[in-house]
Structures are given as C-alpha cells and as structure tokens.
UniProtKB/TrEMBL annotation:
Lineage of producing organism: Bacteria, Pseudomonadati, Pseudomonadota, Betaproteobacteria, Burkholderiales
Residues that hold ATP according to the record: 106, 145, 150-156, 180-183, 188, 211, 266-267
Name under which the protein is recorded: N5-carboxyaminoimidazole ribonucleotide synthase
Source organism of this protein record: Ramlibacter alkalitolerans
Top-level taxon: Bacteria
HAMAP family in the cross-refs: PurK
Matching Pfam families: ATP-grasp, PurK_C, RS_preATP-grasp-like
Length: 386
C-alpha cells in the first residue's frame, strides 16, 4: 500500500481539541491540514491550514474538504456516518463509516463486543414503550443511557428501582436506550489501539481513569496502575475488538474492573481519546501521531512509554473560584513551576462548568514522584485529590 507522504494534506471531520492535537501532530511531520467544522473559532480550525466552515452533512462543504485532502479522518464519533461514506467515494477515509456507525450506537456496540467474545455489563435494549415491561429484575439498580449521542455522562439517568424506569426514560425523551446494570467498580481503565490498513496493530499501555460526574478527571499511566491480569486482558480485548471491526485508525476502548478481579468492556471511541493525551509527552509515539500514521499508511511501531504520567483534565469549573466574580483564568504559573508539567489549552473562548478547556500532563522519573507532583498541581488549581 503506497503511503501518503508529508507534503500531502490530511483532512479531519470536526474541529474540537482532538482535531487540534491531530493537526499539531500532522503539521509537525510536514503535512498540510484541512478541518471541517461549522464553528468559526473551533480549536482545530484555528490552527489548521484550511478550515471549511460548514455543516457535517453539507454537500458543498464535504466536496471542499475532499478537494483539499489526500485522506480524511474524524475526531468525534457523532460525525454522521453517511458523511464519511460520502467522502470515501472520493478519498481514503479512516476509520471507515461502517466502524464509526457501530461505535455511534450503544446497542450495536455492545452486540459487537459480544461477537468478539468480550463481556460487557448485563443490559437490555429499549426501543419503545413495550420493552419496558420485559426488563428483568436483575438489571436494577441500573443506569439508563441513550443509544446515541451521549458523551461526558450526558444522556444518562440513574434508575434505582423498576418504578424509576419509566420516568427516567421519559426524561430522556423516549429515545432508544440501553439499560445497564450498575456494577461495583474497583477501577476504570482504557486502552488505545492503532491498526493499519495492512492489519498491523500496536497499542499504548493500559491507562487508569478516574471519572467525576460522568466526566474523565484524571488518567494515570505507569506500571501497576492497574492489576496485571485484568490489565493484560484489557489489551487482548481491545485488539480483538479492533480486529473484529477490520478497523483502520486509532480506537480507544474503555473498561470497568470489578472487585472480583473480572473485567467488562464499557464503550469504544473510534478516534484518539481523552485518556490517551498523556502519550504526547509520556511516550515516544503519541496517539495523535498514531492517527496520522494509520491515515497516511505509514509504518506502525509499538509505542514505548518512557515516563510515568498523570493527566489532569482542566474543566471550565476551574475558572470559577469561590468568592470570585465571573470567570478568572487559573494561575498557570503556579503549576508550570513544578517539574515535568506540560500545559495544553485548547483555545476555547469561553469557560463553562464541565467544559473541557485543556489538560495538564505530568511526567516524572517514578510513579510515586509523578503522583506527588500531580497531587500538588491539582491542589494549586483547585482540583480535588485523587
Ligand atoms: P464518555 O465521555 O466516556 O463518552 P459517556 O457519556 O459515554 O462518557 P459512559 O462511559 O457510559 O458515558 O459512563 C460514564 C461513567 O459513568 C463511566 O466512566 C463510569 O464511571 C460510570 N458508569 C457508566 N456505566 C456504569 C455501570 N454500568 N456501572 C457503574 N458505573 C457506570
Ligand atoms: Mg465513557
């Protein structure tokens, strides 16, 4: 397969922070970039050579993007699969629309996990009123999730008992949903895999994730951040899931580790993931370079983590300190004076609670030292300890 060499233009659907870091990685390697995003001030649009400001299904916008681009990828999973299929008529597109379509739908996603022999939490699919009565008692207490368009814990409702199910479903506007059994989590982790068009697969080490209010707050990556047996199983499962999709590109799989030592898969994202951001400074190949390489059909080599790493998400909440009026920029200097801190801000104009504004990666010589510095940085910024 002929590689698409630097000097060519790589296109990306979506202009969020993931697109911005993809653009940075592509430009570093000598590519030109094109971003399609309707927002004038989108994080990736602002740093790309070309920015097509159009809707994701606009024929003219899609034609403009494919006119600029030698190959096209996506940075968010809710890009209409039909738009990717349309682009693929003219240019190489990775990941494929068919894989993205599965990741967009929790019911299809879970069916795929099961096909690949990877267990997920017990669940039922709800596609209409009639399904409610047939739900088994074993799924309570549960968590009701819309099948499509959920992210950062949005589109979810806790359902303690059967009596709560109908009101919860109504609150999600009777959308197609899955009801999942609430599991006692010992830890959460994720694995980023990259698979080339030639079937070669590499992965980043297992990442331990802490969520708060349904949003990723902290990722830690070092030996023993996850118990060894479920850790190995997560890597094997992630590879099987990518293989089963005949996937090309970067794929992140999220898992739940349970108290009894077992591991279940939660969901997948057909793109780089927030939990893989540490790899920019903590590994010799980042998840964004992996995305460039898979898209451009360049060789994949197994990334090597050279430093233990901790990533702290910088949510808009940090701009609103107690006692202050309005949004105040956090005191970045107070954390940049610590060793091994790497500040990423996504260039979003307005801070809002829960909005991902940036992240701070900490690298250090040993897991305890990097943890200690990360806890110090968290305290200085007003992030709760972990
Ligand atoms: P993302 O931003 O990762 O796309 P999301 O909105 O798709 O988030 P999930 O990953 O399904 O949401 O859930 C968010 C978090 O809620 C999980 O990381 C976990 O902490 C908790 N959670 C979800 N499902 C369960 C479950 N079945 N049992 C226990 N906790 C759960
Ligand atoms: Mg999730």
């Amino acid at each position: 397969m002929t590689p698409i060499l630097p000097g060519a233009t790589l296109g990306v659907m979506g202009g969020g922070q993931l697109g911005r870091m993809f653009v940075h990685a592509a430009q570093r390697m000598g590519y030109f970039t094109a971003v399609l995003d309707p927002d004038e001030g989108s994080p990736a649009g602002r740093v790309s050579h070309h920015h097509v400001r159009s809707d994701y299904v606009d024929e003219i916008g899609l034609a403009e993007l494919s006119g600029y681009s030698d190959a096209i990828t996506t940075e968010f999973e809710n890009v209409p699969a039909a738009a990717l299929a349309r682009l693929a008529d003219h240019r190489p597109v990775a990941p494929a629309a068919s894989a993205v379509a599965i990741a967009q739908d929790r019911a299809q996603e879970k069916a795929h996990f099961t096909r690949c022999g990877v267990p997920c939490a017990p669940y039922a699919v709800i596609t209409g009123e009639d399904a409610l009565a047939g739900i088994g008692d074993e799924l309570f207490p549960g968590i009701l999730k819309t099948a499509r368009l959920g992210y950062d814990g949005k589109g979810q409702a806790r359902v303690a008992t059967r009596a709560d199910l109908r009101p919860a479903w109504e609150s999600l506007r009777r959308a197609d949903c899955v009801l999942e059994k609430m599991l006692p989590l010992a830890f959460e982790c994720s694995v980023v895999v990259a698979r080339g068009a030639d079937g070669v697969m590499v992965h980043l080490p297992v990442q331990r994730n802490l969520h708060r209010n349904g949003i990723l707050a902290v990722t830690e990556v070092h030996e023993q951040c996850v118990p060894p047996v479920p850790g190995l199983r997560a890597i094997e499962a992630a590879k099987a899931i990518a293989e089963g999709l005949d996937y090309v590109g970067v794929l992140c799989i999220e898992f739940f580790g349970l108290a009894d030592g077992s591991l279940v898969v939660n969901e997948m994202a057909p793109r780089p993931h927030n939990s893989g951001h540490w790899s920019i400074e903590g590994a010799d190949v980042s998840q964004f370079e992996l995305q460039v390489r898979t898209l451009a059909r360049l060789p994949l080599v197994q990334p090597r983590q050279h430093s233990p790493a901790v990533m702290l998400n910088l949510l808009g909440d940090l701009w609103f300190r107690e006692g202050a009026t309005g949004a105040q920029t956090p005191d970045w200097a107070s954390v940049l004076c610590l060793p091994g801190t790497h500040l990423h801000l996504y260039g979003k104009a307005e801070a809002r609670p829960g909005r991902k504004m940036g992240h701070l990666t900490l690298t250090g010589p040993t897991p305890p030292s990097v943890r200690e510095t990360a806890l110090d940085a968290a305290q200085r910024l007003g992030i709760a300890p972990f």
